[in-house]
Amino acid sequence: MLATAVAGLVALAPAADAQVGTGPWIADSPGYTEQERGCGQVSGLTFQLTCSTASGDQRAERRYTTYSGGTHQFEGSFKITSMSGTRISLKQTFRDGSDAGPYFLLAVEKGGRLYAVEGGATLGSGATVGTAVRVNTINQVGSSHKVYLNGSLKQTIPSPGGSYYDKFGSYRTASGAGPITVQWSGIRFWHK
Fold this sequence. Notes:
This protein is mostly beta strands. It has one helix at residues 2-12; strands at residues 26-28, 32-37, 40-43, 46-49, 59-64, 67-68, 71-83, 86-96, 101-108, 114-116, 122-124, 132-140, 144-149, 152-158, 163-177, 180-191. The protein has one domain: Jelly Rolls. It contains 1 helix and 16 strands.
C-alpha cells in the first residue's frame, strides 16, 4: 500500500530539469553582459525596442559567455507583451573569434510567425501578444545546432567547429522595425 502511494506521488512530481535532448546534462551558469543600442531598453528580463526606426542598430539583449567545443543547451521562455513592429530577432546563437557573426537567429513577424533569419524557414506560429513560447537550442559544436519550440524539434542545421555564444532579447533584423516589448523567463543553461 505504501509503495503504491509513493509511486503515485513520484508520478505526479515534475521533472527536475525541463531540458530537451538526450542527456545527461550538467547545469551551467554562464556570465552575461547587457547590450542597449539605439532605442533598445533592458529592465531585468524585459527587453524593449521603443521606436519604429527601420534602420540603424536597435537592440536590447543579454549576451552570454563564449564557449568552444562540446554540447551546449539554452532554455528560456518569452512572452511578447506588445508589438506593433515586425521581424524582430528574439534568440540568437552567434559565432565568435575569427569567424564572428550571425549564425542562427530566431525572429518573429507581426502576426506570430517564428522563423530562422538565415534562410527564412518557418519554425512555428502563434507567437502572438500574451502567448508564452519556450525555446531550446542545442549546439553540438562541430556537428549540429537544433532548435526546439515548446519541446518540439523544429530545425537541425550543421554546426561548424569554433566558438559560439548565446543571446536573447529583442534585436531589429535588417528588414525589421519595432516597437516591441518582450518578457523572458526560465533562463537556464546546460552542457555535456
